[in-house]
Amino acid sequence: MNDLEQLAVLDPMRDYEPSPSRRARATAALEKVFHEPAPAPSRRFSFGDAAPARRSARRFVLSGAVVGLAAAVAVAGMIVLPGEHGDKAYAWTAKPQALAGADALPEAQRCAAGWGADWATPPTAADILLAERRGRATLALVRKDGTGLTACFVLDPAEGAAGGDLLDTATPQPVNGRARIETMGATEGKEGWYSDVIGRAGADVTKLEIELPDGTNVQASVRNGWWVAWWPGHEGGKADGVRVVVHTSSGSKSFLPSELGV
Amino acid sequence: MDHDDFRALHAATYADLLRFVKRRIPDDDADDVVSATFLVAWQRSAELPEDARPWLFGIARNILANQARSRLRRRVVDVRMVTDLSRAEADRAPGVDARLDLVRAWWALSAADREVLALVAFDRLTDVQAAAVLGCRRATFRMRLNRARRRLRDALEPATDLPPAVATWSNA
Fold this sequence. Notes:
heterodimer, A: 262 residues, alpha+beta, five-stranded antiparallel β-sheet, four-stranded antiparallel β-sheet, 13 strands, B: 172 residues, mainly alpha, Arc Repressor Mutant, subunit A, 65% helix, globular, transmembrane (chain A), membrane (chain A), transmembrane helix (chain A), Sigma-70 family RNA polymerase sigma factor (chain B)
């Protein structure tokens, strides 16, 4: 019996069958559905609609979904995090180099190519909302087919795109002085763990910094109301493993990630 | 798709969808989510794929995620309920200790790991279907699944020297 088969034994719904009365209620509810007005046919459904959380599930822990379980996680650090101090092999700088869209276009096109047929029109420089480089790595926010927004991460040009996940653009921009984390996590790459965070910022936010437990300040790239950063290490995968400092012209304020939506 | 076709779809998938939802939210709310899922599915029925079950699960997951957003649970839709056993039961039944270890290991995982594992182990989806539910590529899902399985093994056997992690790099 493999691990998945073992897990199946724990399924609380394994032997569940809805009662005839419950099924009858559901069938009756279905008849009401038929009386609902038909939607406008122009709006295309996609699995992006169905699963807005796709971007963060790819990562290892610790996103907002874990907030409710933070206590359990904190109880024992039960989540195994290999390489506690061995994740610093990446060529990386705490301060990013801002890239113009044209400079990040090759990476954006690689990310788009990774989507295959799901990305119909190759991106242009105008589709790049924000792009930064640290060492060899390029992180860019790229509009996909004029509608969706993807986080394109090329950690090492020799390796190709590391990610091209869809972001949720439905939520409004935070109010002045505030920021929100859309996705944060840690991923294990060839040179160890790395963390990345992508968020949105209020219109007056001039700068964001990620404070790591070892004292490192990671400067985020901020543009067009979005901000991104990445760093070697897995702090982004821990519940409140970093602090985020939001700067405006009127001052600075430090937040835990859980205060910013994760 | 006409009404009869959709009734047939409902009949064929209702129980699976209800189980999918009940794994993730309390029973009291499950019927509403299932009904809402079929409402969306009916409104999108022109785009119904050949394999409807993961498509329906994806819609339900989206509804659950949107509901959970207000509770800051926006990233993954966690599996909230796993059969647990009391210590008294464990004392009575041989082999149940191992199951308790598995339960503990399960809850030591991240919600994201639990979600990918549950899609395969509980919802009995293939990797292609599970990827459709999550809205990601199959290769990405397999990467997530492999990581989750490895972390499950780690949680079960923390002292075991496991082989080095497989390359986790993957074109997303």
